[in-house]
Amino acid sequence: MSRQLEVYLAEIEQQLGGLPSHTRLDVIAEVREHLLALVAEQQRRGLAENEAVAAALGQFGDARRIGRRLRRAHQPESLGQATVTGLRWFGLATLVNVSALFFGGIPAGVVPELVYHVIGYLLLYWLIFIGPFVAGLATGITAASKGVIGAALSFTICAALFVCFVYVASSDPEEWLIMVRVVAPIGLPLACVGAALGGLWRARRVEQPQA
Amino acid sequence: MRKQRTTYGELLKGATPVLILAVLAEAPRHGYAIARAIEQRSQQALAVGEGSLYPLLHALERDGLITSAWVTPESGPARKVYRLTAAGHTALAQRMDAWQQFSTAINRVLGGSGDESAA
What we know:
By secondary structure, chain A is mainly α. Helices cover 82% and strands 0% of the residues of chain A. In chain A, helix 1 (3-14) packs antiparallel against helix 2 (21-44), helix 2 (21-44) crosses helix 3 (49-60) and helix 6 runs antiparallel to helix 7 (147-169). Helix content of chain B is 61%, strand content 12%. A 3-stranded antiparallel β-sheet of chain B has the order 1-3-2.
């Protein structure tokens, strides 16, 4: 068996993580038989083995993409998985937000005033607009059909944790109320819109036939 | 030929499952034979992406439209053979009907033979 073909099958199998082992073996055995038939067909046309394998793999398509599509055919995303995916992205955004609070604690004069204001505004916009949208977009792309619900749930969890952090860390007791009034009503819809756009983008990519 | 197939590939978007069901309605087949049957029946005009065939086959099986079983022929290796279920036959009839209506509508627009008397 050609090493090139084995590497290709291993790439497909790598994408099947999470599926039961008997399903993985079944899928790989089926793909292997198809590829061997394609190789034999190319050899009948006069190609040497290496050339025939290369032609067969080219005809079959991108291994990672096929593997991902095979996994989704067997294991459509659950809401739990979508939420976990969302938590990764929104957790990252929350970390940036917490960093923003620490930045806010730097006394004026330590960094040039212009830099202080520019970075301060960037972090403010990240907090309210960019962060939830980007994290939602990433959730939509990676969790597709359940992305919007996953994004909404994970945003709510992360926003609640963030507000709790502000409540504990802030010296101003009113500050956390501002967070609740501003972050949730603006951030949540932005997160959902981002997830919907991300999901649509991926759905279009997935449905694109590989002719 | 390659360019032509790519163009058809764009047109094939969404139509591949019904092509699979149609060739399986004729006879049970394994994946490689399904790809070849689509090519032959379309006189080499349609080439379904060989790799993208399996996610579609497995999704159709998940939806109960086809079933599969490993079959070992007298000569040659064992292969997973797919066959249409009763639900698959019904789905094929519905999709063919929808496709006929769709292609008729497209042809009317392209051919300009629709009823334009209202204009």
